[in-house]
Amino acid sequence: MATRIYLTGRLAIEHAGTLILDEAAFPGRQGRLVFAYLAADTHRTVPRAELTEVLWGDSPPREADTTLSAVLSRLRGLLRRIPCGADIAGQNGAIALRLPADTWLDLEGAANAIDEAEGAGRRQDHAAAWSHANIAAVIARRPFLPSEDAPWIERQRQSLSSMLIRSLRCLSAVGAETGDLVSAVQYAIQIVDLDPLRESAYQQLMKLHLRAGDAAEALRVFATCRERLRDELGASPSPEIAQLHLSILRGDVN
Question: Quick one: 64 and 121 in the same domain?
Fold first, then answer.
């Protein structure tokens, strides 16, 4: 069985279905940060200066290079003691995490799953779309290094948030197309909560409420959209969603 690496939730490595390395086993905060940074982009080598910035930002201590070498050494030793075949290699001032070809990484797993889900949705393969979107959503909901804060961490969190929204769109679409309007609405509400300034999310939610026969709730969704746009952006709803609102008031929608 392949090695599985989890960067979301708690850092962990599984091999052959068994947890072999939990977050607490990593060599301290610096070891966790370096491992997560290398694992999140295993397809490239990382300059030592980049890892120095990961650990200390733009204010590295005088002994930064020595400390980084010690962190890498401890990580290398840890990985070599476990039967997953992972290693940390360094050459010409650059570092890379080497993993077996069949290693599964949760971040890549989520990205692949949402691509598969959207492709299945275009083919009208509702079962496959539902399955893949659920996989992506489960991973994307997990926090990424929740106790840390840095630009690269925030970029990864934004990527996960984007994947979660895409997966929820797929799940909502499957619900709508298979007649499960309750689920479709629930997923659409989650999208609005995650992306409260995107008008298209409100518009889709309004349409789902209308399909479910709840025009009053569709009107409430529009009111929420209008209020948030006004308060956060000083803007008014677009003509498209305003026209939908007017059509509901006039009773011109089914």
Answer: no
